Automatic annotation (TrEMBL):
InterPro entries reported in the protein's UniProt record: DUF3144
Pfam families: DUF3144 (PF11342)
Top-level taxon of the source organism: Bacteria
Name recorded for this polypeptide: DUF3144 domain-containing protein
Gene3D superfamilies given in the database record: 1.10.287.3020
């Protein structure tokens, strides 16, 4: 799987999509190493959850937590849902 980028995106967005491509390329290598795609997917999702939990826990001043763990979970779940559905539509359009 690869990502496509448009020439009409900002430099910051380009950097973001370059990072996405690096993660996808690494996942593809793992799949090529005989790890089943579902295992690679589960590992990537778990790694993202761990990294996001760590990042959330170390987000700043303990005197100003900003949001509760429940609020953070809802935020991340909503973002994941949105990105998942956006990518389903993107891949459907490429398949046509």
């Amino acid at each position: 799987m690869t990502t496509e980028r448009s020439s009409n995106i900002s430099q910051d967005d380009q950097v973001f999509f370059d990072l996405v491509t690096r993660f996808i390329n690494e996942a593809n290598k793992m799949n090529d190493e005989k790890h089943h795609r579902s295992r690679v997917s589960a590992a990537l999702l778990f790694a993202a959850a761990r990294y996001n939990a760590f990042t959330w826990m170390h987000r700043g001043d303990d005197n100003n937590p900003g949001q509760t763990a429940d609020e953070a979970e809802k935020f991340f779940a909503a973002h994941y849902r949105s990105m998942f559905l956006e990518n389903v539509e993107f891949l459907k359009a490429r398949a046509d």
